[in-house]
User: What shape does this take?
Amino acid sequence: MERFADEAVIEVSSGNGGNGCAAFRREKYVPRGGPSGGDGGKGGDVVFTVRRNLRTLTHLRYKPVFKAENGQDGSGSGRYGRQGVDVVVPLPPGSLIRDMQSGNVIRDFSEAGEDFVFLKGGNGGWGNIHFKSPVNQAPRKALPGQRGKTVQLKVELQIMADIGLVGFPNAGKSSLLNRFTNARPKIAAYPFTTKIPNLGVLTAGDRDIIIADIPGLIEGASMGAGLGIRFLKHISRTAALAFLIDLSDDNYLTAFDVLSSELEAFSPELTAKKRVVLGTKTDLPETEGRLAELAAKYSGEQVLGISVFSGDGIKEAAGLFFNLVDITEQGEEP
Assistant: This one.
C-alpha cells in the first residue's frame, strides 16, 4: 500500500510551569533562617521545524499528539526547578497549519530549516524568597506554575515543485516524469494509475528543477469528481505548469479548455501561471496531423509534441521547462 498523507489532525500541548516552593533555611547555626523556596521551572514550548527530507505527513498520522515536558517544581535552599524540554514537530516544506476550530491559517512553512515557536510553555511559579519584606520576614506564600496550552491543529501539505504536470488520466505524465528524472512512478495503460503526487528532479549540467506528477484530473474535478480534487491544491505551489494532451484521444482539441476550466474553478490564480502545452504520444499512427491542429487552435500557447517512447521532443521539452522556471524567477514575459 502506498503511504502518502497530505492532511493530518494533531494535538499540541506546551508544558506546565513548575510550582514555586515555600521553604525556610534550617541550618545548624541558623535556627530561624529566612525563606529559601526556589522558583519552578518554565514549561517546554511547542516548536515546528521544517525538514527537507520529509515529503509527506504520514508521521503525524502515526503520532498525532505532541506534548512538551512540564517544568519541575522549585525546592528548598534556593534551588530552582529545571525547565521543561521543548517538543519539536517536524514538517515537510510546503506545509501549513490551521486552527481546527476556525480554519484560519496560523503559519505557512515554505522554507526548509524554518523554526516557529507556536506555544510558549507556562512560566514557573515564584518561591517564597520573592515575598520577603521588612514587614513579613517569614512569608509562607509561593505561587503555582502557569498552565500550558493545548490546541488542536489541522496540518496540510502542498507539494512545492518548479513544474507541475497537469492532464487527464493516462495522458503520459508518469511516463514523462520517469523519462526525465530518477523517479519511478507506477505506469500502466489504464486510468488513475497515479494515486499520489510523485516528485522527480530534472538535472541539466549544474542545474536542477523539481517536477511534480499530479494525479489525473477529470471534468468536474473542481467540484469533487474523480481523484484529482484531493491534489488540485498541490498545483498551487508550482512555479509553472505543463499541460499534457493525449493526441491519441479523440477529445484532444477540447482537453486543454476543460483542464483550464477546472483549474480556474479551483483557483483563478492557477490560470495566471506560466505554462506550456505538450501533445503526447506522437509516435502513434493515429496522432499524425493532430499536433498541427492543436498548435493551430492554441496559437497563443507554446505547443510542443513529444513521445516518451521514441524520444521525439523530449530534449526540447526539458529546455522549455528550464526556460519556464527562469521566466518565473525573473518575472519576465516569455
Remarks:
- The domain at 163-330 is CATH 3.40.50.300 (Rossmann fold).
